[in-house]
Amino acid sequence: MRKGAKRKRSQKDNNEDEAAAVPAQDNRKTTELTKPPTRAKPVKASKPEPEYYEDKRNLEDLWKDIFPVGTEWDQLDKVYGFNWNFSNLENAFEEGGVLHGKKVYLFGCTEPQLVTFKDDSLLIHIPAVVAVPSPFPPSDKIGIKSVQREVEEIIPMKQMKMDWVPYIPLENRESQVDRLRHQIFILSCTQRRAALKHLKIDRIKKYEYCLPYFYNPFKEDDLEQSTEVQIIFPSELKPIFCEFDWELDELEEFTDKLIQEDELSEDQKDAFKEFVKEKVRETKKANREAREARRKALEEMSEETKRAFEVLRFYKFYPVQTPDTPDISNVKASFINRYYGKAHEVL
């Protein structure tokens, strides 16, 4: 073949070219198969939304720590069944409040009332707190009296496992208690409910008839001026409950009227009259002793104590209205009990 002439490509040449090309394709496939897979980028976890808790108020549990004197044991759970709000009591200790900067003694009570809540009429025990600003405890005694109990008892509150104890605000509970200067004292009771089953019925009932006792020697007791006696006579028919006024009522006429009304049998007439006379004598004697005790107390009282009694005021706090509690605005009352009388201010 002459130089520069083109040679016709043979089939053999084609086969050799194809054979040479095959290893190159295999190498690419091998490279692709052995190449490590690409790692996926990690997904950042979203941060959880922070949870916010409302801080407890400094005196938020104050009203719950105060023993509700005179409340039936089986009703206590119902008292705390509502989320009552006593922020008005808490605010009273703040600057500008009626209790700010004062030593205060607090006791609780409950008042059964029929109220409407969410279109339902409910009989509930409404809690109330009485505040007594005073440099000394208003009393260390408890009165026990009811219609069913013929005799009134005035006993040391410790006999009923009650006492004034300091209340520690939330912000001070990490401090040493003995180093705190206590300003708030609450009436507390250490009687455990679980131990009630071991008590006699009369002892349990005493708690229901308890009333915080208070005696102001500068104010003559209404009972000292009263000429009425409460009569509970064990008649054959049924017990007779009545009031006899030894100045306004004539005993013979009073007794005959009870017989006419079938409250008293004829054969018990004389016994009833003697019973009433004895009660009148007891009441007059008690009134004389009360007047003498008041006179003696005034003579022995220090000037500081006299000044404290002269400015003594009682404040009665009810829960404030919230969507979670019944409206009690129409059932608030200034009356505290037979010993304290009426509150100077209802809040």
From TrEMBL:
<dbReference type="InterPro" id="IPR039313">
    <property type="entry name" value="HIT4"/>
</dbReference>
<protein>
    <recommendedName>
        <fullName>Protein HEAT INTOLERANT 4-like</fullName>
    </recommendedName>
</protein>
<keyword id="KW-0175">Coiled coil</keyword>
<feature type="coiled-coil region">
    <location>
        <begin position="273"/>
        <end position="308"/>
    </location>
</feature>
<feature type="region of interest" description="Disordered">
    <location>
        <begin position="1"/>
        <end position="51"/>
    </location>
</feature>
<feature type="compositionally biased region" description="Basic residues">
    <location>
        <begin position="1"/>
        <end position="10"/>
    </location>
</feature>
